[in-house]
């Protein structure tokens, strides 16, 4: 049932720029698919059996679904904001549940230990009180009032600052992070995690960013974000169990895990269980 509940969702399957290079073979929830461009340049996604799948091109990515989505892809207003630089980071394959990949993105407490001297550092390890909730009107998970000291919050940062965060989960395998923008304190940098579920325990992660940064080269921006996620990959691929536990008794959360708790509760509410472990084994 969990697989069926997620069949009608939108998922990233390629960068749109890759469609100009020929046929891109990949998979979605265990189904082999191909991404290509039609004669007019529009993106086309088909199964290996030739069935045409629905397509949306947004945020520089091609999105598709094995089912029939009953809603549009979520919006990111900053994607239409003049002056921002849009950074296509590429793809990182991770041997973990797609839901695990999203939950790791929501975790603040690991910053000093996994991203040492970049997103965190000892002795600044305490996660301050913040707010996590499921917003019923938007039907999204949000975490706000998140603050954490970071030695280098972004490639554009020149020194350590206390960074403010907001996390948003608008879809089961996607998350949007809003964080302090060092060059423009009145704005937010936007960093997203778009996760493509290849299988229940394997995913492709497509980070994307919308930044105010006129100084850093595109290569350095991409390298910085790839460095962060490659540090995460080593942790994700060693987590046990490999699937994301949804039974509250399987793992004991701490105060710092409020966003993860809300995310798991939201997944269960919608029966989004592809990549999840429902009972202790």
UniProtKB/TrEMBL annotation:
The entry's keywords: Oxidoreductase
InterPro entries, per database record: Cholesterol_7-desaturase, VanA_C_cat
Gene Ontology molecular function: any one: oxidoreductase activity
Keyword Oxidoreductase: yes
Domain Vanillate O-demethylase oxygenase-like C-terminal catalytic intervals: 94-269
Domain of life (superkingdom): Bacteria
The keyword Metal-binding is assigned to this record: no
Pfam name, any one: VanA_C
Entry coiled-coil feature ranges: none
Name of this protein: (2Fe-2S)-binding protein
Protein source organism: Rhizobium grahamii
């Amino acid at each position: 049932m969990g697989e069926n509940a997620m069949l009608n969702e939108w998922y990233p399957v390629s960068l749109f720029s890759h469609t100009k290079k020929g046929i891109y073979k990949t998979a979605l929830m265990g189904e082999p698919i191909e991404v290509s461009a039609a004669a007019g340049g529009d993106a086309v996604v088909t199964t290996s059996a030739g069935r045409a799948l629905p397509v949306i091109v947004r945020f520089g990515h091609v999105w598709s679904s094995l089912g029939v989505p009953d809603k549009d892809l979520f919006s990111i207003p900053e994607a239409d904001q003049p002056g921002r630089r849009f950074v296509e980071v590429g793809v990182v394959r991770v041997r973990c549940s797609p839901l695990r990949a999203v939950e790791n993105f929501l975790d603040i407490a690991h910053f000093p230990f996994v991203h040492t001297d970049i997103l965190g550092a000892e002795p600044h390890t305490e996660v301050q009180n913040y707010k996590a909730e499921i917003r019923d009107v938007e039907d999204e998970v949000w975490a706000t009032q998140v603050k954490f000291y970071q030695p280098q919050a972004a490639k554009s940062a020149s020194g350590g600052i206390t960074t403010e965060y907001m996390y948003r989960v608008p879809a089961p395998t996607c998350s949007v992070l809003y964080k302090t923008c060092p060059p423009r304190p009145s704005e937010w940098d936007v960093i997203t995690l778009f996760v493509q579920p290849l299988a229940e325990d394997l995913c492709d992660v497509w980070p994307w960013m919308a930044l105010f940064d006129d100084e850093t080269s595109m290569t350095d921006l991409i390298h910085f974000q790839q460095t962060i996620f490659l540090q995460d990959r080593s942790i994700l691929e060693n987590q046990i169990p490999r699937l994301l536990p949804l039974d509250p008794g399987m793992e004991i959360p701490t105060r710092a895990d409020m966003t993860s708790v809300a995310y798991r509760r939201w997944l269960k509410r919608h029966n989004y269980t592809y990549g999840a472990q429902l009972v202790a084994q």
